[in-house]
Amino acid sequence: MGERELSNLQHTTVDLPSGGVIIVLDTGAVINQEAEAMLQALHSRSTGGLKNHLQILMNKGSANFMQNFYVGYGHKSIGDCGTTTLFVEGISMLAAKAIQDNPLYSGQEASTRYVDFSQQPFIDPTGTEKGKQLMELQRQFYLDAQEPTKFHLKKLYPKKEEEKDFVYEKAITARAFDITRSLLPAGASTNIAWHTNLRQAADKVLFLRHHPLKEVKEIAEGTEQALKIHHPNSFGHKRYDLTEDYQDNIAKIIITIILILQLNL
Questions:
Q1: Nearest Cα to 66, choosing from 234, 235, 250?
Q2: pLDDT by residue (tens digit) across 170-198?
Q3: What is the CATH number of domain 3-110+188-264?
Q4: Which of 95, 129, 187, 204 is the most buried (most CB within 10 A)?
């Protein structure tokens, strides 16, 4: 794909209040994710085969099908047949873990093993000068630990005669980052890529909307907004009060468990 074609892609972008951003990737596919889900779903409703389904898609499009059968009738398995990729950038590591806390999560995060986090912005939920100072002290502790850690690693793993200098230094640096990343505060900003199917995206956003952390709630709202723009026929699910209340109760239980664990420590 040429530079011109890439520049014409219509990625969906939603800015977050914390300064981060959510981007839903537009691959430029002729058959988009919603249409792909429709084609697979038609196999359960007709034995005409793919060529016949493609003709239906060409004549009718996927919009009404997804609105009626996936969203309207609640046939959730149809949402399993279409995938989407989101890039969530400039969020805290803690918020990233909330998104990744799912056995079905597929994606990547900025690696603290290979990326120097000395210049990364820190996200302070308190918004206070005291909070900022505390995080900067943690950053300095992280920075001060780099050279002593490398020195110790070189003593443990001396360079072998056949090893090239730049390869050895790169390995030592990566290992030092690997060790010292434990010193980074949870508010250090990071970027993640999240590849998911349409159904899992909707289910995860529902859970994140009720997360106890304000930043995560904002990410959930921004993600839902971006998905509605990019996949307009697959994210118009009706909200039910009982479901919302249930998710709120789960969030309260999580907070209670965390507090009990902290007190016991």
A1: 234
A2: 999 999 999 999 999 999 999 999 999 99
A3: 3.30.1360.170
A4: 95
